């Protein structure tokens, strides 16, 4: 019996997305921060499969094939050897196989995703960029993914090119930009970005990555205003960071000084995520998942918050009584006293870091696609180039 | 060819321990916070095996069988059904099998551990407590673990009883208390605790859990003073939390209001852990690992900091250029500018939580073994009991 | 020889305002927080005079008669006895006398100010409100102040009524609203407020009180945009709080939970104020002073930052070498090492309060002029009313 | 009718001290940070007199003549011209005159104080140091102060020399060291310092300056233990900072990076001070005042907290209804809702500084009396010396 498709699921209820692969697998030892490419699908399929299983167990209705940044130009950017060792095609195919295997252990769908390209950032034009996308989408179609996702785009122009390529496949298309409420990096408003994604043919539109849950939902509210005004009704989708980022400028968490190796103290609790899931649902978002920083327990938090709306609980809830109720079994009486919702809902967690501030000053170089300094290249960055960058940085 | 034993390894160099299973597997969906018992070895052996592999990959020289709190009395405490469903023996045996399998994929040893018991906390005396330990140790010996560990004891008296049982096996014995520099919960000084563990026959002594790396090392320094004064020379071992806890009282992180579901903002960065590894080594600690909160990337940080001393690198370092050097491959120039040691070493990370304090006021009920309120029981805690506890708590 | 007038001074250079009387004199014991009325001019003229002298000494070019909130309706609001004991007329006259005496010890001008009224807040209409203003202005004119100031208005409508009354005097009129960049409490934009003040006849327009220096200057930038677009060229004036208030909503610091008795940790340093003075000057503000929280050393900081632009130094600088240079005379060598600008400019001061957050959640009742709950009355608030208010507050 | 003496007052009840002159008058423009010497008694007697009056009004039972650091060697240290312009004798005499005048406007006593000397720090020996003290004490005796105070000593040895000189006068002698619970700078324990002050003949012993109220009271508890063990019963006295300093090392707030120009966010609220007054009283302290940072409203907070114990209220309480009750007269209802004790007692004030940490790393050069770098001299510090100091500092 065929599984119910993504658009029907969204029509009938709420879809729980999965979490972030690159950050989780970097911590588990299988992905390299810097290039952030997914050759682990070939090198360590067991590790990738296990993370898929944990998200499935946590209630995810979809398994996104782990193909983040697996475009050929990214796999050979700045000294990355993944393209020459494996090829993008092989990495993407392995990702589809693993995702499908785990999806079939439950009732989940699989999807393939494409993202912004170094080619666009370097200013090489529409044809070159779409050629990159087309190669990736072909692998997804050949491997029979259930739908496609264009995610992590900073410029609506490149996003439109991506949606257009995906539409050639005839599959449902979802699209999420990595922007906040202040618009894309060429100053197109968030509302307009939403409208343009829908007009380009996306069935599902929204925001992923770059900002914390409250900021992403603020952006989605902007998009919804634009869509409502234009009389458009695509499904809404949100996949924020699981890091708190109130101090970000419009370029998002990459500009925070803590990115990517000292973000720990910004990690969201499960309670932060339950609050996010509720708020997203109330806005009307029906595809609710997470991006970088989302671990299996964060996805479980979405499933638990929306248990009634979904009419089912997830497997991982067997090991998690709601709102800390499991603490009733704790040895110490003062910990048992924390087995209740109002305790966790109202707690303001300390950081244990009295020498640290609560917010940071993000880098703000103010450059984007088209700027010379953003031209990408194949060679690894040299010491001289690094020193030049540090000098630039201190001048800002 | 037989593997080199733990004591020889310590004599010849430094041993990297593994990380924390209960917290990591709770987040992955396989362990329940509250009871914290390890029935996952039977229920989800794949999930447990994967975590072992990640620690091995990160450089761990030992695989601790996942038997935390797997004493029969704990497995049936306050409504826990693990004992009736599986029995402690079965859980412990499965743990040994998994640990051995992964250990043999590399050159690692395996160990079995026993911990403080509800029986002691309830005041049931030496014979009853040692009976509990003996059952666990028998499984470890039958399954041929390489050495034994008595860990997570708050009272030196119970620790001595545990070491004594372990010594019956003829295996090397390690022992770590979950105390800080202020001594055990019956006010025996940390220095004296160190001396008494050594005199009880432990080959390796130290501290695990309950406090952050700086506090644990402060405690180890106290132990070393006592041991030096007594002319004793056991190996030293440290396995702290990967959470920052400067605000703890002597009972440790369990009393922090954030325990266990809102500790996120206290999580140590990899750089915090490199600092810990260096400092531990300089004090003379030769068994350097981690406890709750230690994920694979934290163990990798120990391996990388001590790479020269160990004369080898770990597999996971293939995906981690030292001190952020991998960022040379990043797309954005201001992130490439962070590819250097002094950047990460000096960064004071923001929490992104301006409405939260930096420190918390821990619960401080001031009760310990022997107090009536600490008597354990089989039934799950009732609503009435919880309300009574909340009332007590607010009164403090 | 007559002193140079305020408009000529502004035309030829920069005018340094004075600081905040109610907060400073509350701490010195002469003003009561709650009513905040200035009967000290009658009760403790020496205390008022001394504060004027300190501001003069710190470089203030103007002495604002201490008549804040000295309208008859405020002096008898909610149990205040100042009106029945002294009358507004007597208080205002005494204020003028003291200000004039000290002004003549230097080259300073004096001004009289009027502020928002309970009558307006209670919705009693234009005629009633202007009647209140007219009584105050008469005292100022009779006592020969050099110019008039309409300050601390939250609604541009009431401000226009005030300016109109002041214009009847023929004296130069300055006008500052206590709003930020988000507009007045009836949602008139800040830019429009600026334009309407100028069109109503104010020679000098700007913002005072309610927000920290950065927020006030952001508001002034908005006003300037509006004025430029309308082709209007009044002088600009800023008198912000000397408290940091990034967490305020549009109603300002009164809604912060710390108002008014726990604002200490928000107090600006002298270096914060030098930064403010420089930024204000660069925007084009020519009347640069302070409001609540500004102590004499804050005014000195303005004078010192603009010493070159003013072509003179202030008396109090004899006791203050620039940028900490006086520390060269300190006993301890590590304190002498702080005798330099870059040290103080870059310091991020700790609060010494690790159990406190960095930001607060302001009260946000969302009511303003016209709402029933804002009706003022003569009787002191009863216990029942207070309990009702607490209940309301907790509900928000 | 002669006033009741200090010892009788202490025997019969509690004595409220006054606040800090150097910090308050620095902000008012009359004292220079760096040398911190009191030539304002000659230059601006009105300013000094006004501050005395405010403390009297706030309930202070004693007026300490403003003679801080007015030893001849300090008045000519490192370029200070006060000695050559005025002489110590003239400054001290003027201070006594002003204090006496204001004391007689109420029922207050006056006292003269002496402090640590550059001569001691430079290692010049007992005779030289006592010669300095004797000159100061002579002025106090000639001007008929009611009692003497040896305050702000970091070394018990110098303190004993000072007490010994004071005892020659026949007047009651109080003595307070500027140390915390960790002992003096030559590592004499705080308990022993207490005992040695009492044995040297001080009638009143305690601690002033350098630390926040909680730390000073912790030190007093140590002193009391020592005194109790030795069977000694002097009166106890505390005059802490009105700055929060949990991050200080044993040298106190001078080592904090914020000293002295960026301490604002550490200033205690009136509620912090009420808590301090209560706690001091309960420990048995009977001379309760403040040092640097204590403004008149802080002294009023002591008087109000101990109103029952003193059997009287202070004049300044006419302008301050207890625990925020004056807010009943406020215009805005949500501010009236704050007119109650439990609101202010439980408030955790935000700093409004999200880019700042809560604690700082103090300088820790680890040098004290006898170290070459602490030799004092008459010449002002040169640029070369400052640069050398900065280099030293960065090396630490």
UniProtKB/TrEMBL annotation, chains A, B, C, D:
Pfam families: S-methyl_trans (PF02574). One of its GO terms (cellular component) is cytosol. It comes from Dimorphilus gyrociliatus. It comes from the Eukaryota. Binds 1 zinc ion per subunit. This is DgyrCDS11355. InterPro entries: BHMT, BHMT-like, HCY_dom, HCY_dom_sf. Residues 3-306 form the Hcy-binding domain. Keywords: Metal-binding, Methyltransferase, Transferase, Zinc. Its cofactor is Zn(2+). Gene3D superfamilies: Homocysteine-binding-like domain. Pathway: Amino-acid biosynthesis; L-methionine biosynthesis via de novo pathway; L-methionine from L-homocysteine (BhmT route): step 1/1. GO terms for molecular function: betaine-homocysteine S-methyltransferase activity; zinc ion binding.
């Amino acid at each position: 019996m065929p599984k119910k498709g993504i658009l029907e699921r969204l029509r009938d209820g709420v879809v729980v997305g999965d979490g972030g692969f690159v950050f989780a697998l970097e911590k588990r030892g299988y992905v390299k921060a810097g290039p952030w490419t997914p050759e682990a699908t070939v090198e360590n399929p067991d590790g990738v499969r296990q993370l898929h299983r944990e998200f499935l167990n946590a209630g995810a209705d979809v398994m996104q094939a782990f193909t983040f940044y697996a475009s050929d130009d990214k796999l050979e950017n700045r000294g990355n050897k993944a393209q020459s060792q494996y090829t993008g095609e092989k990495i993407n195919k392995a990702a589809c196989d693993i995702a499908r295997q785990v999806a079939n252990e439950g009732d989940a769908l699989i999807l393939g995703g494409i993202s912004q390209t170094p080619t666009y950032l370097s200013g090489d034009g529409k044809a070159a960029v779409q050629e990159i996308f087309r190669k990736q989408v072909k692998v997804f179609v050949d491997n029979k993914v259930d739908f496609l996702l264009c995610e992590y785009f900073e410029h609506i122009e490149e996003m439109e090119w991506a949606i257009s390529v995906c539409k050639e496949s005839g599959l449902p298309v979802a699209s999420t930009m990595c922007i906040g409420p202040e618009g894309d990096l060429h100053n197109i408003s968030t509302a307009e970005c939403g409208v343009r994604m829908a007009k380009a043919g996306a069935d599902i539109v929204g925001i992923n990555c770059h900002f914390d849950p409250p900021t992403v939902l603020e952006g989605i509210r902007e998009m919804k205003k634009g869509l409502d005004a234009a009389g458009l009704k695509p499904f809404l989708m949100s996949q924020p960071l699981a890091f708190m980022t109130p101090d970000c400028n419009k370029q998002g968490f990459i500009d925070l000084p803590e990115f990517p190796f000292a973000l720990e103290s910004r990690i969201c609790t499960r309670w932060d995520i339950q609050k996010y899931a509720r708020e997203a649902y109330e806005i009307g978002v029906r595809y609710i998942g997470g991006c970088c920083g989302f671990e299996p327990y964060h996805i479980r938090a979405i499933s638990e918050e929306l248990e009634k709306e979904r009419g089912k609980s997830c497997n991982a809830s067997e090991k998690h009584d709601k709102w800390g109720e499991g603490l009733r079994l704790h040895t110490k009486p003062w910990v048992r006293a924390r087995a209740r919702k109002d305790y966790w809902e109202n707690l303001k967690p300390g950081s244990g870091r009295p020498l640290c501030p609560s917010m940071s000053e993000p880098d703000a170089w103010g450059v984007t696609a088209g700027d010379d300094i953003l031209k990408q290249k194949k060679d690894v960055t040299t010491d001289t180039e690094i020193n030049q960058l540090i000098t630039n940085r201190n001048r800002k």
